[in-house]
């Protein structure tokens, strides 16, 4: 079997790249973070693996790679990876969906418990030498709504169901098969999202970012939510209208928010989220477990073996939808 040619878009010094050594007998691997690094190898490359390349680099390398048949992205979110030439091509694209889902499911559960047990108040009292007993809220029997019921959404659902919580979900396509979902009590189409939100104590946003989801949760959606509810965003920042969320939080139209993603990253100094007492802020690291990058590389290696054998690839992306 002939060797395949792989272009890896990355800083050559990233430690996980050494794991590619196991491909030495089945592939030639070129690694670089500039177009010049691929001048000799792009013409015959069949695979582009975007480990950490910029959108401009991905596009420039793709346009030089006339023989490419498959593009894989390390991340699950692809809004910074897709461009018109790739979308219009016959090239298969896959992503890292599923690799990071368990950690994001755990973060969501942690955020729910943070607000239910009022950990901020506990920490504040501890630091002030204050002994001040107070009531905490149970989560069993409460309702979690999940906006974007893909792999990450199901990872959230499985964990909160184990805590005795009810699960509702919103997804783009709702079919008869969804009625037997093992975790969700009911699945709503996108146009019924406000109906779902009105029933939720916690709302987890796990939707990808595309033309249909920008600003999906805005002022009207916050108005539909309970004043005691908490919103948790582990998808993409712009899926929630940031100004509408700040207004809802500042005026206590909702109880709180736990945010791992933002419109602008890094979040600039002086941003209202830093000061709002009812916000739990994570600097986009909720899935950064000690082995998250190793797992992402192992997934690519397993995908490459499928590619070599001619087996169907996992996580094939609908390039028009972005997931």
Description:
With 323 residues, the chain is of the alpha/beta class. 29% of the residues lie in helices and 16% in strands. It has ten helices and twelve strands. A seven-stranded parallel sheet has the order 8-7-6-9-10-11-12. Strands 2-1-3-4-5 form a five-stranded parallel sheet, with helices on one face.
Number of strands: 12
Briefly note the structural class of the backbone: alpha/beta
How would you write the strand order of the largest sheet? 8-7-6-9-10-11-12
Helix content: 25-40%
**Unreliable residue runs:** none
The main sheet comes to: 7 strands, parallel
Distance between the termini: 32 Å
What is the residue-mean pLDDT, rounded to a whole number? Answer: 95
Helix count equals 10
**H/E element sequence:** EEEHEHEHHEHEEHEHEHEHEH
Backbone CA Rg: 22 Å
**Strand percent estimate:** 15-25%
Q: What's the overall geometry?
A: elongated
List the helices and strands and how they pair.
Layout lengths: L3 E6 L17 E6 L14 E4 L4 H10 L5 E4 L10 H5 L3 E3 L6 H16 L2 H9 L15 E5 L3 H11 L4 E6 L14 E4 L3 H5 L4 E4 L13 H6 L5 E4 L8 H9 L5 E4 L12 H4 L3 E3 L10 H18 L14
Parallel strand pairs: 1-2, 1-3, 3-4, 4-5, 6-7, 6-9, 7-8, 9-10, 10-11, 11-12
Helix pairs in contact: 3-5
Output the keywords.
single chain, 323 residues, alpha/beta, seven-stranded parallel beta sheet, five-stranded parallel beta sheet, 10 helices, elongated
Quick recap:
The chain has 323 residues and is of the alpha/beta class.
